[in-house]
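Progress note, sequence design subtask.
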């Protein structure tokens, strides 16, 4: 047996779940899901998360699993006027005509790619823009989830890295990965 160091965090607030951190990966179990976060934002941790998720669904083979997802989160602090304009031209035009100011904006788009749906949310306030990429996989059971998990983390990151600069003309910086 090998000793493994795991950091366990808990909150005094009664409805917040425990958080477990090990070698750059944070695990947060909830009643209806288990979330894995890459703290070091490396491809290695994404591969390790993928292996953990696959092992978890194999251990939970009798648990009804209807979906899994992979999320990427990017925040642009002090976004350029070009970036704001590209994300919400009509809102800015209306605000300018009405002698108003755009203080927040939210855009949601869904794209179908083979077995996955990419839900892209772009939120803007006065100080930052937030880009949330959610790759959603609907599945019938744990076996199907286990088969689909292989390789999806890095595939989805490639989609984000190719799609983001094409749409927004800036390079993505991945903040967190969650499954």
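Output:
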């Amino acid at each position: 047996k090998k000793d493994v160091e795991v950091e366990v965090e808990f909150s005094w607030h009664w409805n917040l779940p425990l958080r477990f951190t090990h070698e750059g990966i944070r695990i947060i179990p909830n009643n209806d899901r288990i979330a894995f976060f890459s703290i070091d934002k490396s491809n290695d941790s994404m591969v390790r998360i993928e292996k953990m998720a696959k092992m978890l669904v194999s251990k939970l083979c009798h648990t009804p699993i209807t979906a899994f997802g992979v999320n990427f989160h990017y925040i642009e602090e002090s976004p350029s006027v070009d970036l704001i304009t590209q994300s919400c031209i009509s809102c800015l035009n209306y605000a300018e005509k009405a002698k108003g100011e755009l203080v927040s904006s939210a855009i949601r788009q869904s794209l179908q790619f083979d077995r996955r749906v990419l839900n892209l949310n772009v939120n803007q306030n006065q100080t930052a823009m937030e880009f949330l990429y959610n790759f959603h996989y609907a599945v019938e059971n744990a076996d199907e989830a286990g088969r689909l998990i292989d390789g999806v983390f890095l595939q989805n990151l490639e989609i984000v890295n190719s799609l983001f600069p094409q749409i927004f003309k800036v390079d993505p910086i991945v903040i967190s990965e969650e499954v």
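The CA atoms of residues 107 and 122 lie 5 Å apart. Work on this subtask will continue into the next period as scheduled.
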